[in-house]
Structures are given as C-alpha cells and as structure tokens.
Write a structure and sequence with these properties.
By secondary structure, the chain is an alpha/beta fold. 44% of the residues lie in helices and 12% in strands. The protein contains 20 helices and 20 strands. It has helices at 3-7, 13-18, 46-63, 70-78, 92-99, 148-160, 182-193, 205-218, 223-228, 246-257, 278-299, 326-342, 359-375, 395-411, 421-424, 426-432, 442-445, 463-468, 474-487, 496-511, and strands spanning 65-67, 82-84, 87-89, 105-108, 117-120, 125-128, 134-135, 144-145, 198-200, 232-236, 243-244, 261-264, 269-270, 305-308, 312-314, 321-322, 346-349, 379-384, 386-387, 392-393. It has a 7-stranded parallel beta sheet with strand order 6-18-17-14-12-10-9. Helix 5 (92-99) packs across helix 11. The two termini are 32 Å apart. Belongs to the trimethylamine methyltransferase family.
C-alpha cells in the first residue's frame, strides 16, 4: 500500500448519491432502507420450533458434517469437537455458545457511505440476480452465454434502481473472460459502475484476497479502516447434504479475520439433497449453517454472520428444482422463525423456475419475495433478474421485479396505515355527505400526488387505450426501458487517483496470472 493511499478519501458521499444514473428514464422511489412493519408469519408453534431445533442439534451431534478443509478441521479439533476423518460432530452447548456471539444487527459500509446498509432487525435489503451463466433479452430472443458487456449492463441496472441495495455476485457470469482473471475485471466494473455494497466469491484465496484489496482501494481506506467494520461480504453454500467444501470455508476464514461479513446459505432441495418433508429439510439446512457460523465465531468472536435459506423442493417427475412453490414459501417462513430463535439476521431469495419473463416468472418470484417479507428476511438475494432456476439473467425480468420491489417498499410505509384525524378524514366525509364525490375536495387535492403508489412499468390504461398506444406487453415495455437506462447511464463519481490505483492493481494481478484454475 502506498503512502498516498492511506491519506486519500473517497470523493463520492452525497455527490455520489445524487449523481445521474440513467437520467430520468423513470420516476422511481428514493433510496431508502425499507423497514418491515408487519408481524412475521410464524407457521410453527413453540413445540414446532423446539422440534426443528432438536432435529438440527441431533444431526450435528449424531450424524455430523463433513468439512473438506484441513485448516477448519484443525480449528474445530482445537475447539473440542469430535473429528472422525473429515466428519465433525458438535456439542450442542458449544454451538449455542458460539452462535450466541454473532451480532443480531450490523452494518456494511460501501465506498459511498450514504449507501451504508443495516443488516438485521426489521430492515429489508434487496440485491440483484447473481451468478447465472446465461443471459436472455428480447433483442436476442434466446438463451446465450454471458459476456462482460451483458454483466456491465446488468450492473448499470443494479446501480440505477434505488430499490436494489447491494451488488451480489456477478449478475451474469462473463464467460468471455478467462476464469483466472474474471474476478479482477468484473470487480473493477462493479466498483466503478456501482457504489453499493460489494460481494466476494469465496472461491480460492487469490480471488478473496484480490476482492478485499480492491474494495479497500475503492474506499480510499487504510488497512486499519478496512478492518474496523464490514465494508463487504461473502455468501457461501454448503454442499448438501451435510458437507462444507474447502474453498468456501477458506474464503470465509480469510474474510472473518479481516472483519468482513459472512452469509451462510445451505442449498437444500427437499426430495433430492434433503428430506422430502419441509421440516426435515429445514432442520438439515439449519445444521449445515449453524456449524459453519459457530466455526467463524470461534475464530473471530462477534464477526457479522447471516443465516441463509435456500430450501425448496424438486419436481418429483423430472428432478428439476422448483421455486416460488407453497413449500418454498413455508420453508422460508419456518427458517425465519428459527433465525429469530438463534438471534441471527436472515437471508432468502427472490427466485423462479420460469425460462422467460412471463406470467409464471412473475407469480413464482412474487411468491418468493412475499415469503421473504413474511419471514422477516433481512437480505433478499436474487431479488431482480432471475430466471430458469438461476441459470439465466434477464434485464427485462430485472425491471419487472423492481416494480414488485417498489410495491413492497410502498406497502411497508407507515402512512398507508396511519389512523390520525387527517387519515380518518371525517370532515372530508361530512363535506361530501351522501352525494357527490371526493375528486375535487381539498382533502383529496392536497394529497392526490402522493396518496397512492405510482407504477413505472405497469400499464393502467384500458384495453382501447393500450391498443392505441401500440399494444405493448409488459416484457417489451421493460426491454425499451432497459435500453434507455443503459444508453443514458452515467457512472457514480470516483476519485481519478483511486480509479487509476484500481486499474493498476488489476493490471499487476493479471501480469502475475490472477487466480489458478483447473483448466
């Protein structure tokens, strides 16, 4: 690190927050961290919570979880866990003690400090689609492998929409960049195109260390400032059933030791990678997540951790994953209950199995998103842009999902359910009486511009008006909007010296070979 790196500071702040991000293509709701004012849906009674907890503890005690990471096995051996080869069995009291060290609420502070996130409590945060290898939009009309340009365009949507709070993994995998240096190019794009909270894939020490260093550089931070509080996060998946692999645990240990946040999300598909019963699948998912969180708390007590759920079911006719199902919704709600039981923030997802942005895509995603709301989720992954069970990213779907996300945010605004004298509006009712209407009275005129949610994508014209306007279906409207946003996009401000330092870092690491690959 150079001396001037330690002295520089980011020039973004409010200027960054106010910068144009696609001009005024649409009128959208302002940036905010929405607060869930509803009581969570809790399908489990006290005996149900205890039964699932007991199931998770017995899995950890009697069956155990494989840790395919030598360093983790050594740490867990030191902690007193029972090790048999790579199978680790845990004492429930140790699990409870370690998990109890994790904070129930924490912050993540990106390079634009006005975009700081609160994770936990009743705050809901939504992130972009992450990690599909393929892309679909209406101009192409078919599923194609992702490219850097496609990835960058989806990052522009991530920055543009105020209802998207964090930049997850690659919104589409740019397979036109070699895997050894892909993380360098994409993180450079992410850090310059967006100023929102960043994610690192835990896929080998080089990638994790590179991303942490790039986030530190982009924030104009010293190493001490970077480690003082979370500036970024990772998300890992267990290899269900009951297994944690080497690179993901390795990445989390590296992030934990530098004070960065960790999300642990088992990917348990009932009937394939977990029991066919949802209670059994949830119990297994909890066991897989809790033991990893306990490991990280033992290594770095108090490190921010989030427990994730990705419990759904498979189509028993084909074996394909299904999303947005009634079972998915209930599993999400049940995991939310258990997350509160353990005092941990929770992550879930906005997902679907549809192949194109059609009706199925929207009802399955809407089910997933509302299950997240009902469960008390704090971080919603894949909230915009996901198709084909995570194999396709679509800009049209991204924009359609953002309409739903804005509606969820509006739904939670306390003024809708306010019950003061102005809201009861008795004087207005008296003035209209038994005849007339409310359109022209002062009570309505004072409030009509902000009384109701105004969509940016939905078309409320009648059929004849819609037909006269070109009979444009929703995905096509979203496609036109996508093109206009990208055409008018302007990156958020970044100090030129910081941008140059980022570019130099990328060039140096490329010259060193980047990260090793198997191909």
């Amino acid at each position: 690190m150079t001396d001037n790196t330690a002295r520089r500071r980011r020039g973004g702040g409010r200027a960054g927050a106010a910068a144009r991000r696609g001009g005024d293509v649409i009128e959208q709701m302002p940036w905010r961290l929405p607060v869930n004012i509803d009581r969570p849906t809790e399908p489990l009674g006290p005996e149900g919570v205890e039964a699932i907890h007991e199931g998770a503890m017995r899995i950890l005690e009697e069956v155990g979880v494989a840790f395919l990471n030598t360093e983790a096995l050594g740490i867990l051996r030191e902690a007193g866990c029972k090790i048999d080869g790579d199978i680790v069995r845990f004492d429930r009291h140790w699990i409870k003690e370690m998990v109890g060290k994790a904070p129930s609420t924490f912050t993540i502070t990106p390079r634009n400090t006005d975009r700081e996130l609160t994770v936990g409590g009743n705050t809901m945060l939504f992130g972009n689609v992450s990690s599909p290898p393929n892309y679909w939009d209406m101009s192409i009309g078919k599923k194609v492998p992702g490219t850097r340009e496609m990835c960058a365009n989806l990052l522009k949507l991530t920055q543009y929409f105020n209802c998207i709070h964090f930049a997850g993994g690659y919104p589409v995998e740019p397979v036109d960049i070699h895997a050894s240096v892909r993380h360098l190019d994409v993180l450079y794009d992410k850090l310059t195109i967006t100023d929102k909270a960043m994610h690192a894939y835990s896929l080998g020490k080089e990638r994790v260390e590179d991303v942490m260093e790039m986030v530190r550089i982009a924030g104009g931070l010293t190493e001490e400032e970077f480690q003082a509080k979370p500036r970024m996060y990772t998300n890992i998946n267990s290899t269900s059933p009951l297994k944690h692999d080497h690179p993901m645990i390795d990445g989390c240990l590296r992030l934990a030791r530098r004070g960065q946040a960790i999300v642990v999300t088992p990917f348990t598909l009932a009937g394939a990678m977990a029991p066919v019963t949802m209670a059994g699948a949830v119990a297994q998912s909890l066991a897989e997540a809790l033991c990893a969180i306990a490991l990280f708390q033992y290594v770095k007590p108090g490190i921010p951790c989030v427990i994730g759920t990705f419990t759904s079911n498979v189509d028993m006719k084909s074996g394909a994953p299904a999303f947005g199902t009634p079972e998915y919704m209930r599993a999400t709600q049940m995991t939310g209950q258990m997350a509160r039981f353990y005092g941990l923030p929770m992550r879930s997802s906005g997902v679907c199995a549809a192949n194109v942005p059609d009706g199925q895509a929207m009802w399955e995603t809407s089910n997933s998103l509302w299950a997240s709301v009902q469960s008390g989720t704090n971080m919603v992954y894949h909230a915009a842009g996901w198709l084909e069970g995570g194999l396709i990213a679509s800009p049209e779907k991204f924009i359609m999902d953002c309409e739903v996300l804005q509606q969820i945010q509006r739904y939670m605004e306390p003024e809708i359910t306010a019950t003061g004298p102005d809201e009861i509006a008795l004087d207005a009712i008296k003035s209209v009486g038994n005849e007339g209407h409310f359109f022209g009275i002062k009570h309505t005129q004072d409030r009509y511009t902000s009384a109701f949610y105004q969509p940016f994508l939905s078309d409320w014209k009648n059929y004849e008006g819609w037909e006269v306007a070109g009979a444009i279906w929703t995905p096509e409207r979203a496609h036109h909007m996508f093109k206009e946003i990208v055409a008018n996009f302007e990156e958020p401000p970044m100090d030129i010296a910081i941008r140059d330092e980022l570019a130099d870092f990328v060039a140096r690491r490329k010259s060193e070979g980047g990260a090793p690959t198997d191909f």
